[in-house]
Amino acid sequence: MEKLTANDPEARSADVVAENVDQLRVLFPEAFTEGKVDFGVLKQLLGNAVEEREEKYGLNWHGKRRARQLALTPSTGTLRPCPEESVAWDTTQNLMIEGDNLEVLKLLQKSYAGKVKLIYIDPPYNTGKDFVYPDDFGDNIKNYLELTGQIDGENRKLSSNAEASGRFHTDWLNMMYSRLKLARNLLRKDGVLCISIDDCERDNLRSACDELFGAENFVESIVWKKRYGGGAKEKYLVSLHEYVLVYAKNISALGSLHVPRDQASIEKYYTKRDGNFEKRGPYRTHPLEATKSMGSRPNLVFPIPGPEGVKFFPKRQWLWSEERVSQALHMDEIEFQKDKDGQWTVHTKQYLKDENGEVRKAKSFSIIDNVFSQHGTNELLELFENAHIFPFPKPTGLIKPLLEFGATDSDGIVMDFFAGSATTAHALMKLNATDSTNRCYILVQLPEPVNPENKDQKAPADFCDKIGKPRNVAELTKERLRRATKKIKNDTPMFAGDLGFRVFKLDTSNIRAWEPNHDDLKGTLLDSIDHIKPDRSQEDILYELLLKLGLDLCVSIETRSIAEKSVRSVGAGTLIACLDETIARKDVESLALGIVEWHKQLKPTGDTTVIFRDSAFEDDVAKTNLAAILAQHGLQDVRSL
Question: pTM for this one?
C-alpha cells in the first residue's frame, strides 16, 4: 500500500514547470539529454523562430522573473470546506473561496484546468495607495495567515505602493502577472478573459496580457462610460470612462461574440412582415450589392430575375453566390425595392429569427453606455438596507454583456478571483434566471479587513454585528450572495436553477510535513506517526484529496457505513475513501469485501483509487491484508495518508 506524504508530488498543487517540460519532451524529444533540455539543439529545431537579438521588444520591470517563478511554484496549501457558511451545500455547483487568490489559483490547477469559459476580474486599481496582495515570493500561505490574523505577523503595514517608492508600477505588475499566468491555464480553448482597468495601468496590463496570452489573442478594449456628468473637482478634463480588456485563450476557437438584441432595437429596425412572419418574425433589409471595400470576385457577377421579367446585374458584384441567391429566391428571402429615382434595387431579408425559430443575436459593441457606477452603489444599498458596505462596486449591468458574449454555454463556468462585493456572481444569477440557464461561478476573495478609518469602507459596526460576521470583505461577499439569492427568488419565483454556493477557506495542508526538531528527534518521530494534523476533520482531508487528484470540488459524494466505518464514494467510484481513525485486524475482511461489493454496484468507467488513513491500522498485518483483499478483486490503486 503506497503511503502519501506532504513531500510527494501528489500532495502539492499542479507542478506547472514539470507539465511544461513534459509537453516540450513530446514535441522535441531530441532536445533532451539525460532528462535535461539541451537549448542548443532546441534552438536549431526552432530555426528562425528563436529571437537572438540582445535588445527585444517587450515590457520589463524589476521582479518580473520572480513573479513568473512564483506562478510556477506549487502550493502546499489546501481548501477547507465550510458547509455551515454555505447555501444548499449538497446540491450547488457554485464556489466561494476565501483566501489569497494566488494560492487558490494554484490549488485549482488540477481540478479546473481547461474548464472555465469566462474569467472576469476587477483587480485593485493602482492608485498609489496600499493594496492587500503583498506577495513575498516565498510563502503565500504565511501571507494569508498573517492577513487573516491566524498567526502572529510582524504587525507591519500590509503593502506600500506609494509613487515615491520607485515601485509604483512594478509592485502592481508583480501582483497581476503571476495571477494572470495561472488564470490562463484554467480557461477553456474557447475561453475569454475580461479585465476592468483604468488609464493608470491599462497600457502596462495590455503589454503583460499580450505576452501571457499572445497579442494575436487580443479581442477588444471596451470603453465603459461609467458616469454621466460631474467633474467639478477634476483639474483638467472630466474623466468619464474606464476600460474592459478582452482576450481569448485561442482566438481561432472563439467564434463570433454576440449578445441578445434589446427590445428597443427590435422595434426600431425589424418593422416589415411577410408570409414567413409566424415562424421567423419581422424582418429588415440590406442591399445585396457589394461595396467597393470587397475584393473583386468575378463569380459574384450574374443576373438575378426580378419583377416584370427584368434581370438585374450588379454595378460591381453581389455579396452572395449564385447558388445562395437562388436558394434565397426560393425561400422568399429577396426583396426588390425602387429607389428615389424609380430604379429597382435588390435587397436581402434578415428575419428576427433564424431558420430554427431562434431570435438572432447582435454583435457586441466596443462601448458600454447607460450603465453607471452609481447603479452598482444603488444595488448594494438596496440589498444592505442603505448601508454603505463596499466602495465603488461594479454594477451588474456592466458584467451582463460580458457574460452574454463570453459565457455562451448554458452550463459553463464563470470565474472571478477578485470577487469583491460579488457583482459577477449576482449578475450571473440574474442572467441565469432571465434565460433559464445554469451557468455556475467560482469566486475568490481575500478576507481583507474592513478599515473603519477608511472613508471608502463605510460598513457600520452595528451592521456587521447584526449579520454576525467579522468586519472583512470576504464575509461581505458571502452576505451579498445570500441576499442576492433571496431577491432573485422573490423576483423570479418560477426559476428553479442553482442559487446556492459552497464556501471553502484557504489553509495549510492537512498532511503534516516532515519538519524535524533536532533538539527532540524522539518527540518529532512520535508526533509524525500520524501524518494528519490533529485539528482537521475527515471532510477537510477528503476535499484536499479531491484537489490533489484533480476532481471537481462540487463532485457528487455518497457516504455508506461499512463494517461500522464511514466510507465515501466520490464521483461514482472514481475515489473511495475511508478516513476513520481506527481499523482493527478483525474489521479488515468485512471492510474490504464491503468496499468491493459497493465498487461493483457503482460500475465506475475508469480506474478507482482507494485511500485510508495510515495511522488507523492496528498494525502492518491489518494494512497488508486489506490491500491484498482489495487487489484480489481488481482494486490495485490503494494508498494511505
Answer: 0.83
